[in-house]
Specification:
Length: 405
């Protein structure tokens, strides 16, 4: 190597180093490394092997044929044996072809294998192959070691990023569980406190209650018992849906009848709420679990009663040849845009309204699981001050596909 070669080469190595530092992902970065390296370092194939921590074998995470072997990728050497030897020996390996009389350059691989190490630990191998030469000299090996170090740093950073994400997700899940336990404890205490308090009051032997007062107390006990039952059902439904143990009872469903039944029950539970429907004159039956679909729509209506108590609610249905869209719209305060991506998360509740509105944060999560069990999709659109629209998209299944043929 002459002194005239050193300047441009240093610039290339510096460019590779800076690219690794700023890389946002290891795959595009390896593509760029292989392209940049070939501008000053001769090779035909470049392969990156990474150690599988479970099997302790080398697996290819990146491979490029960029020279003579580009048109014969399936039939040429990729240095697997060298990579396995590096895994056993942990040192640089350089091999040259024995039969130098071969005229086919692809049958004359010169292979250089460099261990990929991070903090002294072997994490993989870089394999560089030249078909037909030239052999690797000491300067070439030093260049390959630099490239290998940069690739090792890239892989290490990717692994650290994955571990950080896993820890962050684990921390988030733990926080959700803590919040859930706190919420459930609070939600359980409320109805139990009412039930215990009014039952104890009715059983007092030193006081006689008139019939009207007894009925009022019993009505409160009955309401709180219903709330307690609903909370327990939500917890069980959530667990069964997540584990796949809740089976859907698929059958033909008449959506107009379903909507009428839902409105009838909603008016009993929320007498002050105004609910209207916008249904086409003709609705084709769909295949679904009518009980679970009702549960989804009723949960959304119940949320509207909590968060938009003075708003009208409109249920509209639109059908195309391949899907049915059910929309439930209210004209209440709306949902802040930063909360929309989390609205269907397990245990999630609006932090601004959670202290004043009872709920476990499981309702919409269960809705999502039920609709997914129908191979459908549930979406939400909302504007603060204008209202919220939930859309349920249900594909039209064939009877045979749902076991109804």
């Amino acid at each position: 190597m002459t002194s005239q070669d050193i300047g441009p080469q240093v610039e290339h190595l510096y460019a590779i180093n800076q690219m690794v530092i700023s890389a946002s992902g290891w795959k595009p970065a390896l593509e760029e490394i292989s392209r940049m390296a070939r501008s000053f370092f001769i090779f035909d194939n470049l392969v990156v092997y990474k150690t599988d921590y479970q099997t302790q074998n080398m697996e290819v995470i990146f491979a490029r044929a960029m020279g003579r072997g580009k048109r014969a990728e399936a039939d040429i050497s990729w240095g697997e044996e060298i990579a396995n030897n590096i895994l056993r020996e942990g040192k640089i390996i350089c091999t040259e072809p024995q039969d130098t009389e071969q005229k086919d350059r692809l049958a004359l691989p010169f292979i250089l294998g460099i261990p990929l190490k991070v903090s002294g630990q072997l994490i993989g191998a870089l394999i560089i192959i030249r078909f037909g030469g030239p052999p690797f000299n000491q300067d070439g090996i030093q260049l390959a070691r630099f490239i290998a170090n940069q690739i090792a740093l890239l892989i290490e950073r990717d692994e650290l990023s994955k571990r950080y994400s896993q820890l962050a997700e684990r921390d988030r899940q733990n926080q959700l569980k803590d919040d859930f336990i706190s919420t459930i404890t609070h939600e359980l205490r409320n109805p139990l406190g009412f039930i215990k308090g009014y039952t104890t009051t009715l059983l007092r032997s030193d006081t006689t209650w008139d019939q009207q007062t007894q009925n009022e107390f019993l009505q409160i006990i009955d309401t709180e018992t219903d709330h307690l039952q609903e909370l327990i059902d939500n917890i069980l439904d959530s667990a069964r849906l997540q584990s796949g143990q809740m089976k859907m009872n698929f059958q033909y469903v008449r959506l107009d009848a379903l909507a009428n039944d839902i409105i009838l029950r909603a008016k009993m539970n929320f007498p002050e709420m105004k609910i209207r429907t916008r249904l086409p004159k003709k609705l084709e039956p769909i295949i679904g679990d009518s009980r679970r679909l009702s549960q989804v729509i009723e949960n959304i209506i119940s949320n509207a009663a909590k968060y938009a108590p003075d708003s009208e609610v409109i249920i509209s249905i639109h059908q195309t040849a391949d899907k049915t869209r059910i929309s439930i719209t209210d004209f209440g305060p709306g949902i802040p845009p930063e909360l929309l991506p989390r609205i269907f998360d397990r245990f999630f509740r609006n932090p601004d309204q959670s202290p004043t509105i009872r709920g476990s944060g499981l309702g919409l999560f269960i809705c999502k699981l039920i609709i997914h069990a129908h191979a459908g999709e549930i979406l939400v659109k909302s504007k603060v001050g204008e209202g919220t629209e939930f859309q349920i998209l249900l594909p039209h299944h064939s009877p045979e596909a749902m076991g109804l043929g």
